[in-house]
Amino acid sequence: MKLRDFLIGVATGLAAAVIVKEASEKVSPYVPAGQVLENIKKEFKKDSPIDGSWIFMKTDNFSNGIMTIPVYRGGISRMHEGEMQTFEFAADARSGVVVELTEV
């Protein structure tokens, strides 16, 4: 095999990888809702056990007065120090970061 043929193959592979990555981000630029919920549950479990959780699979718009971002909305309930606590959250659909958390 000639060096030229090898370099052409490497360049073709890299170009294909970049094209596939860009196409996949255009198709679904969001973190999967299930993964977002699992990450949030993992953080809550550090403090106390979880009784239940839910998340909407479709995104919703969240505005903080300056900008509007797509978010997943969901909730978690847990027993903490003998009392039931219920929280609702909004998590950024692109990064999974919780942007709003309120106790109900």
Describe this structure in words.
It comes from Lysinibacillus xylanilyticus. This is Peptidase M4. This protein has 104 residues and is of the alpha+beta class. Helices cover 37% and strands 38% of the residues. It has helices at residues 3-27, 33-45, and strands spanning 50-55, 60-63, 68-80, 83-92, 98-103. Strands 1, 2, 3, 4 and 5 form a five-stranded antiparallel β-sheet that branches. A hairpin with a 5-residue loop joins β4 (83-92) and β5 (98-103). It is elongated. The chain starts with a helix and ends with a strand. The mean pLDDT is 89.
The gyration radius over C-alpha positions equals 21 Å
Q: Uncertain segments of ≥5 residues (pLDDT<50)?
A: none
Please state the structural category: alpha+beta
The major sheet is characterized as:
5 strands, antiparallel
Total strands: the figure is 5
**Multimeric status of the protein:** single chain
SS field, number of helical segments: 2
Write down the secondary-structure element order: HHEEEEE
* Beta-strand content: 35-45%
**Average pLDDT metric:** 89
Q: Roughly how much helix do the residues carry, as a percent range?
A: 25-40%
Morphology? elongated
- From the N-terminal CA to the C-terminal CA, the straight-line distance is 67 Å
In short:
37% of the residues lie in helices and 38% in strands.
